[in-house]
From TrEMBL:
Gene Ontology biological process terms in this record: spliceosomal tri-snRNP complex assembly
GO cellular component, one term: microprocessor complex
Family: Belongs to the AAR2 family.
Gene3D superfamilies referenced in this protein's UniProt entry, alphabetically: 2.60.34.20, Aar2, C-terminal domain-like
Residue span, AAR2 C-terminal domain: 203-376
Protein name stated in the entry: Protein AAR2 homolog
Domain AAR2 N-terminal: 22-153
Stored InterPro entries: AAR2, AAR2_C, AAR2_C_sf, Aar2_N, AAR2_N_sf
Length: 399
């Protein structure tokens, strides 16, 4: 997650062309030692920093947390999505009182934009590391400007500081309770401002279970064990029948959680993952192509997001592994039993699409090596009884 020097190795002519065609993100007066990130790149702000140049066109996620004036603690992370155009300049300025980046009046913004185009700030701009752009594209392949505008909160800023009222009401497994405690007690949550209003994202409501009148309990149990019909209903009603909008929301939520440290985003990521991994008819028959895209999306999220080797808390680098204590790698994590059951369905099917089979095998191998899980059929299937996303089984009378 640290910034590298890939762009700096380019020849001067190619670099100049990229400076001209790439976007520039001008961030004025950012305090030194602020942890600053764009996409998968994170660094600590130095005395000359005034932003990032050579940013490829398309969606990006900017996030930062500022240091306390009197200690080694940091304010809660604030993040926001931007969609850049070729040669565009985006300008923000640090507000010392609010401790965040703010927009400037239009006239002032135009003046700074013109200065950027005259290369007046060029020596103070760090180059976007193109060596890591491929990683970002894998994490954001279904993100679009329309997906971002549909989901982002009023004002665009995503922060755990505006989720406190929601956190107290949300259903929690043991792992989520530990995550909340880390957020509230860890160095990144000290002195978090108390917000009276919730400024959350506009995530799609994902039902946990199928509810039907006028059908038998056996049928209801079957519908909840295979949630294909629920998935079809959600795609039709909430995504206008466009499955890639769902995948875009899955990526939005993962990025907002892993890089923006939003617990609300984690719960949405979990809800979408849980719905899709609880389907058996859809991957094998009705939405095979969508599930190839889904498994590939989750594969890259696990690959880039869950790294046991990086201890960001001790290194001083914010990194993308901030929350990943050992609880994430235990079989109590919701992903364990859901992925085990889903992969068993796909890998043991008598007839299965080649791409689906290939990506399922890759995901299984990655989960086993990353988390140390045994996903073979004879593994103990642990289900957290407190987990709202566990399969719903309807008890029959007299049973």
């Amino acid at each position: 997650m640290a910034s590298g020097g890939g762009a700096a190795r380019m020849d001067p002519e190619a670099a100049t062309e990229l400076v001209r065609k790439g976007a520039t993100l001008l961030f004025l007066d950012v305090p030194q030692r602020t942890l600053f990130g764009i996409d998968t790149q994170v660094f600590s702000v130095g005395p000359k920093f005034k932003g990032i140049k050579m940013v490829p066109p398309g969606p990006h996620f900017v996030y930062y947390c500022s240091p306390s004036r009197h200690s080694n603690e940091f304010a809660p992370t604030v993040g926001f999505f931007v969609t850049t155009q070729p040669s565009e300049a985006l300008v923000r300025k640090w507000d010392a009182q609010e401790e965040r980046l703010i927009r400037l009046p239009e006239e002032e913004e135009i003046r700074y934009t013109e200065a950027v185009r005259r290369f007046e700030f060029d020596d103070h701009l760090g180059p976007y590391n193109l060596d890591s752009f491929g990683d970002w594209k894998q994490l954001s392949s279904y993100l679009s400007k329309s997906v971002i505008e549909r989901l982002e909160p009023i004002g665009g800023e995503i922060s755990i500081a505006w989720e406190s009222s929601w956190m107290d009401k949300s259903p929690q497994s043991d792992m989520e309770r530990r995550l909340m405690e880390q957020l509230r007690e860890g160095k990144f949550a000290k002195d978090a401002p108390v917000q009276s209003e919730k400024r959350g994202c506009y995530y799609t409501n994902i039902p946990v279970s199928v509810k039907h009148k006028n059908i038998s309990r056996d049928e209801l149990t079957a519908l909840n064990l295979d949630k294909t019909s629920l998935l079809e209903s959600v795609i039709a009603k909430s995504y206008q029948g466009q499955e890639e909008l769902l995948l875009g929301e899955l990526q939005f939520a993962f990025i907002a959680f892993m890089m923006g440290q939003s617990l609300e985003a984690f719960m949405q990521w979990k809800a979408l993952i849980s719905l899709l991994l609880s389907c058996s008819e859809a991957p094998l028959h009705t939405r095979t192509n969508m599930f190839v895209k889904f498994i590939r999306t989750v594969y890259f999220q696990i690959k880039h997001g869950f790294q046991r080797t990086q201890d960001s808390r001790s290194s001083g680098d914010m990194g993308n592994s901030l929350f990943l204590d050992e609880a994430w790698f235990s079989r109590d994590m919701f992903l364990y039993h859901l992925s085990k059951d889903f992969l068993t369905v796909v890998l043991e099917a008598p007839v299965v699409d080649g791409d689906l089979l290939s990506w399922s095998r890759k995901l299984k191998a990655l989960l086993e090596t990353t988390f140390g899980w045994d996903l073979e059929n004879n593994a103990v299937n642990l289900i957290d009884e407190d987990d709202e996303f566990a399969p719903v089984v309807v008890e029959m009378n007299g049973s």
